[in-house]
Request: fold
Amino acid sequence: MEGDLLRLKLSKNGTAETLSVAGELDISSAPALEQAVSQAVDGQGQEFRLDMSGLTFMDSTGAQALVRVHKHVERLGRRLVVVSPTHAVRMVLDILGLDQMIDVQA
Reply:
């Protein structure tokens, strides 16, 4: 799945899914992330992982999309795990306190 500024790639290992997110997560690309997660997540499995090691930028709109993704995944009885956020993304998560709501793993 690709957009102008955001690239998304879903990989599965048994019941574990990882959505790799690369590029920029902002007002123009946030809907693509939410749609990709909605299509990928079901009630199967435990964790749904977002690999953010390729994400170079995230603004407040991207952070809001991440909160909505988190709530969607939890409603399905699963747990969202953000994996390997870049320094810039980690700063946004920390400043907004999202690291207290969402499981973030270095």
Summary: The mean pLDDT is 91.
